[in-house]
Amino acid sequence: MKNSLLILSVFAIVFSGCDSAPPATFMIQINNHSFQVELAQNVQSQSQGLAGRDHLAQDAGMLFVWPDPTIITMWMKGCRIPLDVLFFDHNKRLINFHTMAAPSPSQADYSLPTYRSDKPAQYALEVSAGTSGRLHIKPGTAISFSPELLKALGKETE
Question: pTM here?
Fold first, then answer.
């Protein structure tokens, strides 16, 4: 009986802290400006995105990664802050971007606008609204990934 209680106590301690760990961040660079980004490369993290956040630093963001280029569609479900979304192709060149307004809390999900890549994209980057204009980001602009991010993506070199 003591062993069972000890095991249950250990599980409770280990699993109670799982949600409190900060997400891993990685460096990317656009137009000589560095960003610390969280990585969203599975359905769960992509569905959550930046929903529920009340603030996003100007040098922070979230990088969404797909295994292969595809037309990417984003929306602002549960988002409280306006964002820019930038779509990059497999060569990490900007295809297009949109500024996405935060929906009102009472706005129904079905009425939320969607934002698409103009061509197949492999990466979508969400940053604070206005970042694209502030940094003079235009189609064709390149994004570069830190070695740590490449490693996390299973791409040791590029």
Answer: 0.82
